[in-house]
Structures are given as structure tokens and as C-alpha cells.
What does this fold into?
Amino acid sequence: MLKIPEPMVYDLVRPLGVRQGDMEVNALVDINPQTEDVSWAPEVEYGLADDLALELELPFEDASHERYKVAIQKTLGIYNHLGMANGWQAFVDLNKHTKTLSGDATYIHAVRWADQWSSLSMLGLRFHGINRSAEVEYLLNNTVFYDVSPRLTLGLELNQEVSSGGTWRYRLTPQLHYDIDQHYTIQAGAAASTLNATGKTEKLWSFRLIRVF
It folds into this structure.
């Protein structure tokens, strides 16, 4: 498998090149220090077959369960001699309260540039309100990684959304990933984001705990 880290915020459904039976549970936590609101999302990821993975995610806002999310990801190719991999990811997201259905579809391109440098990019579309008056946004996510050691990786993740009307929103998240052992990984970051209901810049503390089986 070509070893390229996953973004912390907009992560993959298991790494590209997943093997059948691979399984991971993890949870992303976002804390707004000004409002003290906490967004968190436990998820389970499973390799249905070689190069094919499925994810179930349950996003919460504080103590309130808000949405159901199901994702699928397909690896299209691993090119070790070129240091490249690609694939696609798609998910549907159902709001528990409004019953509004949304979805993302993205192409994934990962590159190992050098021994310590790599990147992962996603280009795709987001469809809001598929079962109602669908609106489309364009997605562009780019993350650059630097491997400090076999266990420690630094990253800079930029998530961008552009509406059909031209409105641009973003989230910029410097982050670190630390492999505690072969099963557990902790990720942490501090973000500036306009990906919220108001569109105003907010600061976030972010964490993800990962357990691989």
C-alpha cells in the first residue's frame, strides 16, 4: 500500500488501497472556545472488499444526535512506481429532524512527492436538499503532509466550498497526527473556518481519536 496520510477533517473511508476486512472506528470532535459548542461524530469504517470501503457516521451537536451519514469509497489505482494513487468517494447525509437529504461526490488524488512530503486532494460536488430543491456547491480540498518521524506527521488542510452563486467559504486546519502504537492514532488541530451557518470566521479546536483493528 502507498502510505499517504488522511486529512483530519474531511477524512477518507479507510486509506486508498484498503483490504477486505480492514476496520476502523474513530471520532472527530470540534470545539468552539467562544460559544463552548461541541460538534462530534463517531464513525465506523469497513473494507467490504479489496479497494472498496463503507462508512457509517452519526454526527452530534453537543448531546443532540443530528444526522445519519453513509459513505462509500473506491480505489481506482495505486501506482507505487509513480508515488501516486487515486479513487472516488461519495456519501449521503440525512438530517434526522428535517428529513433533508444531501450528498457529496469527490475524486481523490494522492501523491508521495518525496520521502517525507505527500499531499491528498479532493475535487467534487455537494448536493443540498436532494429530495427537495437541490442546490449545488463545488468542493476543493487540499492537504499537504510532512512526516517528521515514522510516528509523527504534520499537515495543513484547506477545505473550500463554492456555491453556484459564487460564494466562497473555507476551513484552514493546521494539524498533527501521532501514532501511539499500531492500533491507536491521535490527531489534533486548530482551525479558522467560515463553514458555518453565519459564514463568519470562527476558531475551532479539533481532535480525532482513531482505533484500527
